[in-house]
Amino acid sequence: MKTFLHRIIHFSLLLIICFSCKQSKTDNTVAYINNVPITYNEIDNTIKQELFDALNNIYLTRKIALDDYIKEQLLQIEAKKRGISTDSLLNSLYSNKIDEISLKNYAKTNNLEKGISIFERVIKTYAYDSEEGQKILLEKFKHFIVDNYIDSLKSVYKIKILLKAPEKPNIKIDDSMVHFKGNLKSKVTFLVITDYECDMCREYKFAFDTIFERYKSDIRFGFVNYSSYVTPSALASECANNQEKFWIFNDLAFSSKKILDTTDIFKIAQSMNLNIKKFRKDYFDESTAKKLDENIMKLRALGIYGTPTVIINDQIIFNSSSMKDIIGALEEEIRKHK
How far apart are CA 135 and CA 116, in angstroms? Predict the structure, then answer.
């Protein structure tokens, strides 16, 4: 009887182990082709940037909700400690902090005297001395008072945040068509994946140029062209590169207020004193377009989907329009490699 019971237990354990192994493999499978599994990892590798952006948006939503929740909990704890309601606690804060002088100082410090903006489906700006302007100013100042109060409470109560931002995916594009300038021997690589026909790319060109000028002795600055198709400007940039004038063409193309066509491009080429015969030959050579098209496919396979995209030492930056995020990440890498 004892042996039989042991056999049953042993068999049950084997079933559990087999089921667990099978379950873990199944959990990572999203589809099959002729019984060959397609895994989450395989799919995720094709959407690295898009998935990273989505996970960051979830993280930021949770972070805002967590901050608000902690704020409410701290106010409730402090109100209970004093034997009053949360509303009474807030009203006592406001009565101690709000007066005409403090409101004026707050407005001056935050540059609100020229107008006070608020988002109401669209951004609206009200005159500082208008009734609505003063009402919004008061609300903003109340939020400022509460935030400062919460910061002071956080130093008293034990707050431990376990919420983590998603890990940055590694994206290596060293074998792609990258044009470099700056300190070519630097261990810090700053890549801008951009598109000549992207309005936002043109808008942020100045910001990226400013970063380059500030850190050019410390970084290897790279330009990577990426778009939904091979654009005339991308073609022309490679032809200019064949005559060692890539960066000159790059600046001229981005400074244009419109998308360049072939006529515009040849005018620019002439203004740059390029060898037009060679430029024309390279421009209409199918191999130039083929190389660019293959590069676009490579970038797409790596999970890149948008422009402008900033990658620092193979680490993608979530918000490529935030100079604060970009410079923070860049300076951290520079410190690491000094």
Answer: 10
**Pairwise CA distance, residues 293 & 300, whole Å:** 11
Residues 257 and 140 in one domain: no
Q: What is the DSSP string of 62-113?
A: HHHHHHHHHHHHHHHHHHHHHTS-HHHHHHHHHHHH--HHHHHHHHHHTT-T
Mark whether 194 and 120 lie in a shared domain. Answer: no
Domain-embedded: residue 36:
no
Q: How many residues does the chain have?
A: 338
pLDDT digits (tens, 9 = 90+) for 39-81: 988 888 888 888 888 898 999 999 999 999 999 999 999 999 9
- Torsion, CA 137, CA 142, CA 143, CA 145, rounded to 10: 120
**Who contacts 180 (Cβ-Cβ below 8 Å, separation ≥6)?**
220, 221, 222, 223
Instruction: Report whether pLDDT(176) > 80.
Output: no
Q: Which domain holds residue 104?
A: 48-154
Domain total in the chain: 2
Task: Tell me: do 143 and 215 sit in the same domain.
Answer: no
CATH assignment at residue 308: 3.40.30.10
Domain boundary among 122, 154, 186: 154
Query: Mind listing the pLDDT tens digit for each residue in 6-36?
Result: 444 344 433 343 434 444 445 789 899 999 9
What is the reported pLDDT for 180?
Answer: 95
Tell me, what DSSP letter sits at residue 170?
B
